[in-house]
Amino acid sequence: MTETQHSTVFDTGQMQLATVYAKALLGAAGDSAESVLDEFDGFVELVAEMPQLGAALASPRIPFEGKERIIDSALGGQISDVLLKFLKVTARRGRLNCLQAIHKALHEVFNQMTGRVEITLKTAVEIDAKLVADLTAKLQDAVGQKVVLKTSVDPNLVGGIVIQIGDTVYDGSLANQLVKVREKALHNTTQAIRSALERFTLAE
Amino acid sequence: MKFNADEIASVIQKEIEQYETELDVREVGTVLEVGDGIARVHGLQNVMAMEMVEFPGGVIGLAFNLEENSVGVIILGDYLGIQEGDEVKALGKLLSVPVGDCVIGRVLDPLGRPIDGKGPVNSTESRPVEVIAAGVSERQPVTEPMQTGLKAVDAMTPVGRGQRELIIGDRKTGKTAIGIDAIVNQKGSGVKCFYIAIGQKDSSVAVVIAELEKHGCMEYTTVIVSGASTPAPLQYVAPYAGTAMAEHFMFNGQHALIVYDDLSKQAVAYRELSLLMRRPPGREAFPGDVFYCHSRLLERSSKLSDELGGGSITSLPIIETLEGEVSAYIPTNVISITDGQIYLQPDLFFSGVRPAMNAGISVSRVGGNAQIKAMKQVAGGLRLDLASFRELEAFAQLGTELDAATQSKLDRGYRMVELLKQPQFKPMNVIDQVLSLYAGVHGLMDEVPVKEVGAWEEQYLEFIHNHKQDLWDKLNEVKALDDEIKSSIEAAITEFKGVYKSGKK
User: Fold this and answer.
1) Which of A16, A168, A199 sits opposite B7 (nearest CB)?
2) Do residue A167 and residue B25 have CB atoms under 8 angstroms apart?
3) Catalytic residue at B283?
4) Cα(B371)–Cα(B342) distance, rounded to whole angstroms?
5) What integer pLDDT is reported at residue A197 of this predicted model?
């Protein structure tokens, strides 16, 4: 997945591939998985800051030896050996274009391995840290697993919160309720009019 | 009419006051790609095959392909408004359509939404579009006749209630006309009719609806339209939706007749979907389960056992062949599924034999069981006689000298062919059919010139109704030909011949 693509665009083939690489990296990292994950986050951030670097790594026109040299000179000594080797293997296999997907898959697989659930929380306005902590605790109780809460702001919700766990959405937003009220009122009013038309018409 | 705004406002206000907030829980996915009436969706982990999903704007789809990384969805509606990244909601239910008396007399789309401008369909019940057909123990053999009102069909390839009789032929050979005539003939019989137009020109569907209205058939008929401009998913679903509406009547002990016009177009729509979904193509690029697509549809036409009310669905599927090629994939499939076929031939049609039924290769596998006794007695050997006449006729064209017996057989044949001609929208009562076929089969009109056979028959039946109504009533009551009735029919014909000759122009 490249940065130019919309965040909702998925490449399912790449995602499947990324899961394989993510599992391999976490397996190789063993106990130091968490720190490797942190380093990977940093690396992805770096690539995001320097689009040319990302383009160079993803480009099929640069031979893998060149990419290995870039990785070595830029990151050598700064990141763990495992990650360095992993990036070189990925370069050798010509899969550095999947960096974003691998990054995403890494978190998913890591959460799965450590029994954590990623939950997305959407609100209409920014909420404070205390509320986030409260919500996280509540959600942890509800799902019975450790929760990684990701928050985002969507003014279209008007009010309330929307929680997404996996593919299931718990929608408590005001926008959704307004739509529901409208549907219900429309339906019941037309039915009332149909059943007793004379009540709703004025004599001429 | 002027509406009272205050009154309406008060109802809405009450609705808002009574509204209770509840959490909306839904399973969602994201559109990966969309086009050509299908969408690929990421997510929807727990969606089930053929489950309904909803796109933004209320467009409904069906989960058609469940793959490892995505779900293939067929979109039943306008797919142009759907965009990449849109949220797709699983509805947790199967596609269903409104059923009951409220659909009768309406023109609907395959989802049961009205398209005739006569207001909403006020249904209280609905039925799932795809159900498994009734099993063996829930059925009984087909014995009750389903009169089509066409002499040629009722005499030679009788259709029974609960039967599937295929109408097959090239374009412009009168396939739809047979289906429509069968619907027209159901007037007053309590049979509910369904005309399902699939992939047809909207102009021809409009003509059919106008004709049905003109002949007063919309009182008991539902028309389901998915024209040539509707997306393939809707064309694919249309016959199942119509059958679901008919099943409501069947399971309530009533009778229904469905005309599927036509299933070749539905197969083409299904092929389109399957290829877009990347299902492997087979013969003629149709998917492997195109047979199942038709067999599970037509299997739902049945005659239920008496314990279940004895209701029935009779279906007349139509298949269009190309250049008379009945051995193509879809025609052979549907021929093997149905209980017989009416084969219509272009050369017969253009030589004025209408309905243009080829007696030789048209059959009804339910056969005589679905005829009244009198018709069986009259028309028993008619089909074979007519088939052998066609052979003889071809031989006679060689110009050879014929002996008297052969010549008389030929003459009889010409008259029978003439007698079996019938104009459109003129279905005949079965007793009338028996009376006129009796005259033909027993050679009682051999001396009538071939060109006058039609006029002779018309006046003969008029004569019977005017002067021999008691004979007609008696035959209608016994529904069989005993010696007494036979002799009185012959006497009546002799009497009529005197009148006819004198009344000749």
Assistant:
1) A199
2) no
3) no
4) 16
5) 79
